[in-house]
Amino acid sequence: MKSEDTPFEGGPLDGRVLPVLLGMTGHPPKVYRVPVPDAHGGPPTVLVYRRVQAGQSKRLGLHQGWKYAYAPEGDAGDAGGRRKWPWSKPGARSEPGATPEPHADE
Question: What is the 3-state secondary structure (H, E, C) of 38-105?
Fold first, then answer.
């Protein structure tokens, strides 16, 4: 598998450059989660980093690579890890009983 050295900004990994595995498209994942074990044996704390553009070239505005920025809100800004389909309404959830019962209008 191919990896790329990617810089991290903010949070406990600030200033570090770690090798991150690339996906099939040649890009690192959009969200990078780092589990940190608890010192007292409790559940691990998960640090969340989001992929952002590292920079642009001045003349043509071309993409210069990726870096990860610390997301202190964690997974809260990730819409619960669900896919965002273009035809879905923002914040819509499929709940049981949301569709009308058959023969409800009779």
Answer: CCCCCCCEEEEEEEEECCECCCCCCECCEEEEECCCHHHHHHHHCCCCCCCCCCCCCCCCCCCCCCCC
Output the pLDDT for position 50.
95
The pLDDT averaged over each successive group of 10 residues in the chain (106 residues) is: 92 93 92 90 91 90 91 70 71 54 55
Model pTM? Answer: 0.67
Which tokens sit at 8? 């991290």
The structure tokens listed for 44 are: 């691990």
How far, rounded to the nearest angstrom, does the alpha carbon of residue 50 sit from its chain's CA centroid? 5
Please name the amino acid found at residue 23: G
Strand partners, 35: 46
